[in-house]
UniProtKB/TrEMBL annotation:
<dbReference type="InterPro" id="IPR036736">
    <property type="entry name" value="ACP-like_sf"/>
</dbReference>
<dbReference type="InterPro" id="IPR009081">
    <property type="entry name" value="PP-bd_ACP"/>
</dbReference>
<dbReference type="Pfam" id="PF00550">
    <property type="entry name" value="PP-binding"/>
</dbReference>
<feature type="domain" description="Carrier">
    <location>
        <begin position="1"/>
        <end position="77"/>
    </location>
</feature>
<protein>
    <submittedName>
        <fullName>Phosphopantetheine-binding protein</fullName>
    </submittedName>
</protein>
Length: 90
């Protein structure tokens, strides 16, 4: 059974992995400024996958703002996320 990650759950988990309080994060928080790195990202995604939640590690690795992470996790897109690469027809 796949669960949907709520924004509150995502924020709490991010704060936990960064060892800060959830109140320190806002939509415009740059997660890199708080210490987010590839190891922490992988740890978060594995935590969520253990709950059978969907989280796209590749998409999350391309954005840095909390609001963009929430959009990616919700299945949407974000303004600062890079456009997907176009593929050539063969």
């Amino acid at each position: 059974m796949t669960i949907t990650l709520t924004p509150d759950r995502v924020i709490a988990d991010i704060a936990d992995i960064l060892e800060i309080g959830p109140a320190e994060l806002s939509d415009d928080s740059n997660l890199l400024d708080f210490g987010m790195d590839s190891i922490r990202l992988i740890s978060l995604v594995e935590r969520w996958r253990a709950l059978d939640a969907r989280a796209d590690i590749a998409a999350l690795a391309t954005v840095y703002l909390l609001s963009d992470w929430l959009a990616v996790i919700a299945g949407g897109s974000s303004e600062s996320a890079p456009a997907p690469a176009q593929t050539r027809a063969r």
